[in-house]
Amino acid sequence: RKEVEQDPGPFNVPEGATVAFNCTYSNSASQSFFWYRQDCRKEPKLLMSVYSSGNEDGRFTAQLNRASQYISLLIRDSKLSDSATYLCVVNIAGGSYIPTFGRGTSLIVHP
Amino acid sequence: EPEVTQTPSHQVTQMGQEVILRCVPISNHLYFYWYRQILGQKVEFLVSFYNNEISEKSEIFDDQFSVERPDGSNFTLKIRSTKLEDSAMYFCASSELQADREEQYFGPGTRLTVT
Hints:
The complex is a heterodimer of chains A (111) and B (115).
Chain A: E1 4-6, E2 11-14, E3 19-25, E4 30-38, E5 44-50, E6 55-57, E7 60-65, E8 70-75, E9 84-93, E10 97-101, E11 105-110
Parallel strand pairs in A: 2-11
Antiparallel strand pairs in A: 1-3, 3-8, 4-5, 4-9, 6-7, 7-8, 9-10, 9-11
Chain B: E1 5-7, E2 10-13, E3 19-24, E4 31-37, E5 43-50, E6 53-57, E7 65-68, E8 75-79, E9 88-95, E10 105-106, E11 110-114
Parallel strand pairs in B: 2-11
Antiparallel strand pairs in B: 1-3, 3-8, 4-5, 4-9, 5-6, 7-8, 9-10, 9-11
């Protein structure tokens, strides 16, 4: 079983739509969770950390479900500029932290 | 805004050659990382570095790879005897604190092409 799994998409949505992505992880010892976005041929950039109680940043809401071992990202009122690949990152606790990336979910927002 | 820089942006090398990829992390950051991303695949952790030593490394980071902080600003990844399958984008990242809840800042990457 893959450590971090994401639906690759693409999710093709119109401007203004609400879209949600899920990411499942296999290691119950996972300690911390993040969503990054990656534009084509660019470096990953942190979108938001994911806290146990859930957290919101503007149009973006992240949730963590430890019992079912998944995290989610909800994007409201999608903009054209939201088109990107969204990477789920899970830190596995070892002596330090080993970040494990999912393959990413592609989002295309069209006019 | 401070940023991580990487040089070169694109490196072409022949199979069997050694390459050194260079990174300048953000100046007050203490933790440094190397990742690779083969085209069309996921970002893969290679190694983390703190206090002049490796703190974690993945299975990918075998004897072919080494890292060094030769001075107060540069952080390098050396790949010896390159293979075709080493072709990938290599990202350097840094963080002020250990990457738990701390954001990692990624550099723009070096595209390595092994021919």
